[in-house]
Amino acid sequence: MTPWPKGVLRETHPALDSTNAEALRRAAAGASGPLWLLALEQTAARGRRGRVWTQPPGNFGASLLLRPESPAAAALRSFVAALGLHDALIDATGRPEIFALKWPNDVLLSGRKLAGILLESGGPAGGPLALAIGFGVNLRATPDAGALEPGATPPVSLVDGAGVVISPADFLDLLAPAVDVWETRLRTQGFAPLRAAWLAQELLSTFDGELGEVALVPASKGEFRILVDGVLVWDRVADEGFPEAKEIKQRVRDVIAPERDLGHADRKPAAE
Asked: Which domains does the chain possess?
């Protein structure tokens, strides 16, 4: 198991109202982070847009307090969080093929929702910014059907979907180092490695079962190339920039399955 990251604090609580709310309270009281807060129960947890979020016993609920230098830097931590969570789930199961990232904040297991991420910021006007990154993972159970919104992605637990039993504390031992790896990459190498990893997950999810290998190669001096089954489909220098997910999906489709309809990714904007 990867050691706990140096300089990162950790607390475990039997119950909190919300780990994100507690993280921001700590920041207001002067905590600088990075600090992980793990709660075995949350009594007032929330999801995106203030939606009610439940944490059945045995599930994972934790938040990471960071102090990013700007709102733009805070926004990039959504990629850090998602990629770290994805890696931790692979470490827990040894089965990378069953997980997919769903923008902006979900991790799917065989097409069903396993985990979610919520970023919330705070801090006084003109003062230092505080960022709480909340993680919720269905380790043992799924929310009650009545708590789901109409049309929501059906939920799944790690036990039911992968046959893996792990405690919240043990999962945090996997998650914190995984997130720290991506945080370090962002700080030392910039956004390119995160962009590459995210695009790889987008492609593998879209072309599940059709794509043998995708290699995204960020390099020095602004180089960035995407190869699919050995075929170059994007070169940052030749194509004059980074690709949008829609365009790169179209190019990959043209290589491996020209007849395939990508739905909304194939739709052209209406003429003005």
From this structure: 9-189 (3.30.930.10), 192-265 (3.40.30.10)
